[in-house]
Design goal:
By secondary structure, the protein is of the alpha/beta class. It folds into two domains: 5-16 and 87-214, Rossmann fold (3-Layer(aba) Sandwich); 18-82, DNA polymerase, domain 1. It is 45% helix and 16% strand. The chain has helices spanning 18-31, 39-43, 50-57, 65-82, 93-102, 115-125, 147-155, 170-179, 193-199, 211-214, and strands spanning 5-8, 15-16, 88-89, 106-114, 132-136, 163-167, 182-186, 203-205. The strands form two sheets. The chain has a six-stranded parallel sheet with strand order 5-4-1-6-7-8, with helices on both faces. Helix 1 (18-31) crosses helix 4 (65-82) and helix 3 (50-57) crosses helix 4 (65-82). The radius of gyration is 17 Å and the shape is globular. The termini are close together.
Length: 215
C-alpha cells in the first residue's frame, strides 16, 4: 500500500508542550492553595484532553464536577495566554514536514486539546504545512473515537488505509486502529515504547526521520 496522507497528534508528537500546560495548571492550583505537580507528573496527565488533565491535577477531596468545570475554564484562560511560550517542535519535526510537503503528502493534526488551542498552536508554530488542524470540540468525539480522523480522510478523498496516524500515546494508537489507519508511535513523547507496542503500534519511531523509511 502506498501511503498518501499522515495525521499527527500534537502534544508529545509534533511539539513538546509539557511545560506550558503544566505551568498553566499549576498557576490555577496555586491560586486555590492546592498542591502543585511536577513536570513528570503532568507527563502522565496529558493525552485525554485538558478537562481530564484538570481532574487528575485537582486534589481528590476537591474533585466535584463543579470544581473541575470552574478550574478547567480558568486553566484554559491561563493556558491560552502562554500556550506557545515554551512549546517548541521536537528536533527533526520541521525537517520531516518539509520533506513530506515537498512530496505532496496530505498532512493534518488531530488532537484531544481544545479545538481553539489546537488551531492556535498549529497556526503559530506550523503555519504552512497542514491541510487541517482538528481539536476537541465535543467530548463524545474525543480520541480514541475515530470520527474526526475518518472525516479528514474523506476530505482528502483517501481510503483510511492510505493514511498513517502518528502519535505518542496509547490513545493515538487506539484511534488509528479504530479508524483502520496505519498506527505509528513515537518514542520521544509522553509514553514509553513498550506501552505503544502493547497497544498495537506497528512501528515506533526513535527519530522523526525514521518515518521516511516507510514512506
Amino acid at each position: 500500500m502506498k501511503f498518501k496522507g499522515v495525521i499527527f497528534d500534537l502534544d508529545g508528537t509534533l511539539v513538546n508542550s509539557l511545560e506550558d500546560i503544566s505551568d498553566a495548571m499549576n498557576t490555577i492550583l496555586q491560586r486555590l492553595n492546592y498542591p502543585t505537580h511536577s513536570y513528570d507528573d503532568y507527563q502522565y496527565f496529558i493525552g485525554s484532553g485538558l478537562r481530564n488533565l484538570v481532574s487528575k491535577a485537582l486534589p481528590a477531596s476537591n474533585n466535584t464536577e463543579r470544581e473541575i468545570e470552574i478550574s478547567f475554564q480558568n486553566m484554559i484562560t491561563e493556558y491560552r495566554e502562554i500556550c506557545t511560550l515554551k512549546t517548541k517542535p521536537y528536533n527533526g519535526i520541521i525537517e520531516l514536514l518539509d520533506h513530506l510537503a515537498s512530496q505532496d503528502f496530505k498532512l493534518a493534526v488531530f488532537s484531544n486539546k481544545a479545538d481553539e488551542l489546537t488551531k492556535k498552536i498549529v497556526a503559530e508554530i506550523f503555519p504552512d504545512y497542514f491541510h487541517a488542524a482538528v481539536g476537541l470540540s465535543t467530548e463524545s468525539l474525543k480520541k480514541p473515537n475515530p470520527f474526526e480522523a475518518i472525516e479528514i480522510s474523506k476530505s482528502w478523498n483517501l481510503k483510511t488505509d492510505e493514511i498513517l496516524f502518528v502519535g505518542d500515546s496509547d490513545i493515538d494508537i487506539q484511534t488509528a486502529t479504530n479508524a483502520k489507519m496505519f498506527p505509528v508511535g513515537v518514542s520521544w513523547g509522553y509514553r514509553t515504547k513498550d506501552e505503544l507496542i502493547a497497544t498495537g503500534a506497528k512501528l515506533v519511531l526513535n527519530n522523526p526521520s525514521d518515518l521516511l523509511e516507510i514512506l
